[in-house]
Amino acid sequence: MLENVTLRSLFRKKREGQKITMVSTYDYISARLCDEAGIDCVLVGDSLGMVFQGLESTLPVTLEEMIYHTKAVKRGVKRAFIIVDMPFMSYQVSQEEALRNCARVMKETGANAVKLEGGQEIAELVHRLVSVGIPVVGHIGFTPQSVHALGGYRVIGKKEDEREKLKRDFKALEDAGAFMVVLESVPSYLAKEISQPAKSITIGIGAGPHCDGQVLVFHDLVGLVEDIKPKFVKRYVEGAKIFRDALKRYKEEVEKGIFPSEEESYG
Ligand code: KIV
């Protein structure tokens, strides 16, 4: 039987050089599949704004929506470690508001940790959250909540000043007590430079193979998102094609009177 995933077991994996797996997902069924497959961490990502709601960015996602989705995910998870994205502007206005919002997420959803985007500018807040017992995951590199400020979706760390800033941001989060940091869309060699001496667990997405673990969005890895495929996404199954074919067969069978047969009918 698979053991419950805890902070201790995640750090044990890091120490022993075993890779950590994380999947970002938003509902009961997909979370249950991740849990049954032995995925270590389920992230309720605010990417749900784009993937689940069809929005253009993660910016409009609300705290209430994150709580709603996390409650659904929690019901599907028996052993994985659940991390919740704090949505845009739920932690930037003031430390008091941020504390209150993070506390709400922890109290109302039963999640294990919160994830915040940003580096040095949120370090004090991270320290405060950690000091009241809330485990924090940082997120640096390409940070989707700052898509407009960053000038669109792109790799971060191609220029020297960006590389130096990324290292300072990582150090600030680590010193503040973030137990884990997501590195998104960062050159592989830079993620290696950051990860190798790191005390915090590093999780990559578009950051190469040298992080302590990897995260992908469920809908990307099962091939449900067909129109956008960033370089870092690997589809393990062509889900959209499989589902579409099934739907076409269902339509055809209903139209031809093949479904339902006596077998699918009550006597
Ligand atoms: O929102 C999300 O799903 C994320 C991951 C892609 C890291 O932040």
Quick overview:
With 267 residues, this protein is of the alpha/beta class. It has helices at residues 7-15, 28-36, 48-51, 63-76, 95-109, 123-131, 160-176, 188-195, 218-221, 239-255, and strands spanning 20-24, 41-44, 81-85, 113-117, 136-141, 180-184, 201-205, 213-217.
Domains (count) = 2
- Name the ligand types: 3-methyl-2-oxobutanoic acid
**Number of discrete helical segments:** 10
Helical residue percent band: 25-40%
Q: How does this model look, in words?
A:
With 267 residues, this protein is an alpha/beta fold. It has 2 domains: 7-236, Phosphoenolpyruvate-binding domains (TIM Barrel), CATH 3.20.20.60; 239-267, no CATH class. The protein has 10 helices and 8 strands. It has helices at residues 7-15, 28-36, 48-51, 63-76, 95-109, 123-131, 160-176, 188-195, 218-221, 239-255, and strands at residues 20-24, 41-44, 81-85, 113-117, 136-141, 180-184, 201-205, 213-217. Strands 1-2-3-4-5-6-7-8 form an 8-stranded parallel barrel, surrounded by 7 helices. Helix 6 (123-131) links the parallel strand 4 and strand 5 (136-141). It is globular and about 65 Å long. The mean pLDDT is 97.
